[in-house]
Amino acid sequence: MTHIRPTVLAALAALGIFASGPAFAQSSVCQDGQKILLERQSIIKQINELTGGGKKKQVDPRSACKVFGKLVTNGNSGLKWMTTNKDWCQVPDQVVENFQKDHKRAETFKSQACGAAAKMAEMEKRAKQQAQQGAPGRIGGGLTGTLTVPKGAL
User: Fold this and answer.
1) Where is this region: Disordered (predicted)?
2) Is 12:37 a contact under the CB 8 Å cutoff?
């Protein structure tokens, strides 16, 4: 997830390149690209908060799936915009290539997070069904988080 950050910084640096060009003053289309990249920076900030900013923090797959979904949607918009307006807004080829690589990584992360979230939901569903049927799960009653401890002297 930290691989995403350098590409975004490069893309934001590219904003300075095409923001100063004559095409930027002539067209609001270039400003649309800036909005997409600023939105992407905000989403990446959410990802960094979700992951604990480099600290080893347990990440909830459901939250990660949602945030990476936003990142992939933003990446689709960014790629479409770059393909259409690369020349007009003077976006360097390297920025487009890095954005594409970054987008592919985001799609992979989204797939992994959403897959884990789906497995988690299925396990919770099974645990609830077992609890309703009165059948205890493998570990102290299933995934409900409860564990009965015998009372009295051991």
Assistant:
1) 131-154
2) yes
